[in-house]
């Protein structure tokens, strides 16, 4: 098996981010943390992930300061995994993936979960990227302004 190459020092912010959260288990753990998962057993049973894989992913998320451990909220001897501010910043990434998945991987009328506003119960509006003039931006009216010599 080929050893995974780290992208941590790549010149591209997307590559660096993927080095931390680029496997599906990490993103699903983060998704479940947004949905209230806090304990190892929550993630393990909810995802059906092998304990060794989960341990590795949680350790990586803690090392990269996406999550932190905290004493159990019920006072038991267990520890809980809590999203840090950096981890909470991934909320828009999870919502964008959710909306993209809804658009491309569900048949018309197929039942699916939905993200709603807690206060109103209304569906969360579609994400959009707008420019400084508040006009919609897309891949064809933006570009990356590179600095230095980037290989990725």
UniProtKB/TrEMBL annotation:
<dbReference type="InterPro" id="IPR002577">
    <property type="entry name" value="HTH_HxlR"/>
</dbReference>
<protein>
    <submittedName>
        <fullName>Helix-turn-helix domain-containing protein</fullName>
    </submittedName>
</protein>
<keyword id="KW-0804">Transcription</keyword>
<dbReference type="InterPro" id="IPR036390">
    <property type="entry name" value="WH_DNA-bd_sf"/>
</dbReference>
<keyword id="KW-0238">DNA-binding</keyword>
<keyword id="KW-0805">Transcription regulation</keyword>
<dbReference type="InterPro" id="IPR036388">
    <property type="entry name" value="WH-like_DNA-bd_sf"/>
</dbReference>
<feature type="domain" description="HTH hxlR-type">
    <location>
        <begin position="12"/>
        <end position="109"/>
    </location>
</feature>
<dbReference type="Pfam" id="PF01638">
    <property type="entry name" value="HxlR"/>
</dbReference>
């Amino acid at each position: 098996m080929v050893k995974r190459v780290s992208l941590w020092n790549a010149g591209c912010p997307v590559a660096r981010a993927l080095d931390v959260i680029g496997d599906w288990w990490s993103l699903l753990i983060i998704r479940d943390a947004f949905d209230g998962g806090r304990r190892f057993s929550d993630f393990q049973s909810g995802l059906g992930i092998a304990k060794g894989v989960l341990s590795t992913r949680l350790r990586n998320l803690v090392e990269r300061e996406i999550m932190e451990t905290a004493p159990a909220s019920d006072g038991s001897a267990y520890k809980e995994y809590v999203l840090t501010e950096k981890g909470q910043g991934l909320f828009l990434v999870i919502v964008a993936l959710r909306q993209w998945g809804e658009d491309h991987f569900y048949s018309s009328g197929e039942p699916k979960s939905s993200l709603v506003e807690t206060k109103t119960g209304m569906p969360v509006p579609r994400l959009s990227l707008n420019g400084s003039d508040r006009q919609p931006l897309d891949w064809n009216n933006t570009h990356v302004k590179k600095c230095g010599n980037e290989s990725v």
